[in-house]
Amino acid sequence: MSDNKTSNDSSSTDARRSGADSSAAGHSQDETRDRRSANPTAPPEAAAAASAPGPQASATERASTDAPSSASNVEPVDPSQARHDEARQATREARASSASATAAQEAVVPETRRADSRASLAQNLETATEAQAASAANSHSASSDSPMGRTASQPAVGLPPEFTAAPDFGKLNAPPLPLPEHAAPPQPAYLKQSDSAWSVFGRIIAARARQIFDRAGQRVTQRTLRIGVSARIFHPEPGARGLRGKTLQYLEESIAHWVMSRDVLVFMIPTVGNQGMLHTSNIRLRDYAKHLDGLLLQGGADVSPQSYEEVTTRPEWPGDRVRDMYELELLHEFIESGKPVLGVCRGCQLINVAFGGTLYGDIATDVPTAGIHVNEQYDQHRHSIRFPDGSTLANMFPHQREAIVNSIHHQAVKTVGRDLNIEAVSASDGIIEAVRYRKAPFVVGVQWHPEFHRAGGAELLDCTPLLDTFLRVARETRF
């Protein structure tokens, strides 16, 4: 009975073992199939070897996990000792680099400086070594005393202690103190205590107004000058056709170019009036005096003896009464406006007549002893003039008491008009060559033609100072 029981137990035990073996074999076959499916190109021997567990791997796994002495085999590392070793290593590297630098310098530095260089380098090396050793010792003592020294990271060697903490920006830029709820904001420091909102506003408006006026003044003062030139008049010839049967008003080219040489605008002023005009106009000569900055009276026909209440000595010299009336009115309007006037040749004679003076109708007839003031050479004829002491022209030409000018006139000033000064006379016969009205900023007449004088010429008088003075007064008096 017992034998049967024993045999039954053994048979059941064998059955369980065979079942377990078959189950393990089944699992092994499944794993082998999985590996073959993952790597179909691998040979069966390799798959079998991979499926078989290695005794060495299992021993290693047990040694690393199961053995109780595996954790104690790894020795702990002291952080302070590691930093000390790093400092010593840095010291050795510094010594090596210093030695190499010393050797390089000894190869270049002359023999007389090698001893000094060696001593200096040795001293620097010793100082650096001591500083690094002291820093390492301080770091080691701090890490050993502190309970967190083994885990907390220490600052780099040689850094000041304030670099170990984050900066406190609140301490550097403290927030402003809050104002009371109903308190007014503080007044800016640049304002006065007595300043109110209206006073500040008034100053702003005044500053803005000054700026606008300054800009307007600059525009006015920098505007190009506008100089008016009186017109020469060509009267129609009886029975003529074409232009000779018409009244022409024109100016000589040289007089315009002379004025324009100083970069100013030149306008010819025509005659005005309603008699015999096809197209009437309300424009008057005073309008030209209002809008122009100066007047230049150019030369041309003789002044009529009727204009200074005398009778002509010769019928072929009647003068131009129409032009006299036109230019006398023009001269009066510019003087009333305070604008400068410059008369040339006939213009000089007209200024004298305007203030009550008289003229020689013909110099050769009225003054037989006088020199020749006109001939066939026209503007090539010339003579010498002299500036009286204290005259405006003498001050205008300070280094010239006498000068040579052209002479193209047969009329001349006889009696000087009221409030006129003599500015120049002919050096040979004393005939008046220039006058100036002393009750105006600039009203000057010259008997010669300055537009025919070349600027900077060596022989004839350079009349550029005369033109510049005229234009300067025009700029100053145009408001």
Summary?
The chain is an alpha/beta fold and 479 residues long.
Please specify the SSE layout and strand pairing:
Layout: H1 2-38, H2 44-51, H3 55-65, H4 79-108, H5 111-145, H6 169-172, H7 197-221, E1 226-230, E2 232-234, E3 248-250, H8 253-260, E4 265-269, H9 285-291, E5 294-297, H10 321-336, E6 341-344, H11 346-354, E7 358-360, H12 363-366, E8 382-386, H13 392-396, E9 402-406, E10 412-415, E11 420-426, E12 432-437, E13 443-446, H14 464-476
Parallel strand pairs: 1-4, 1-5, 5-6, 6-13
Antiparallel strand pairs: 2-3, 7-10, 8-9, 8-11, 11-12, 12-13
Write out key terms for the chains shown.
single chain, about 475 residues, alpha/beta, Rossmann fold, 9-stranded mixed β-sheet, two-stranded antiparallel ribbon, 14 helices, about 10% strand, elongated, disordered N terminus
